[in-house]
Amino acid sequence: SCKKKMFNYKSVKWKRKREQILKRDGYQCCRCKKYGKSIQATTVHHVKHVDEYPELGYVDSNLESLCTSCHNKAHPEKAKVRKY
Predict the structure, then answer these.
(1) Which residues 6+ apart lie within 8 Å of 33 measured at CB?
(2) What is the pLDDT of residue 75?
(3) How far apart are CA 29 and CA 13, in angstroms?
(4) Tens digit of pLDDT for each residue in 15-44?
(5) 3-state secondary structure of 46
(6) Average predicted confidence (pLDDT) for the chain
(7) Which long-range contacts (CB under 8 A, 24 or more apart) does 72-80 make?
(8) Element (DSSP H or E) covering residue 44
(9) Are 65 and 22 in contact (CB under 8 A)?
């Protein structure tokens, strides 16, 4: 089958990598840091999206620690549209 294997965010391998990247970045948002702000990072973001570049899923240079706000900006396609 040609079905792409989904990246497993629940795997032990990812949980270890995520912790390693957060630690590397001092648990600070990389994008906020560029503007002199010290904001706690809560997410590890794939710079090149893992669905398009699965081979970069665990590559350190493709991963950055982000706060929720910056991560949401990085993924406008995931914004939840509120219907009233």
Answers:
(1) 39
(2) 85
(3) 22
(4) 999 999 999 999 999 999 999 999 999 999
(5) strand
(6) 90
(7) 74/45
(8) strand 43-46
(9) yes
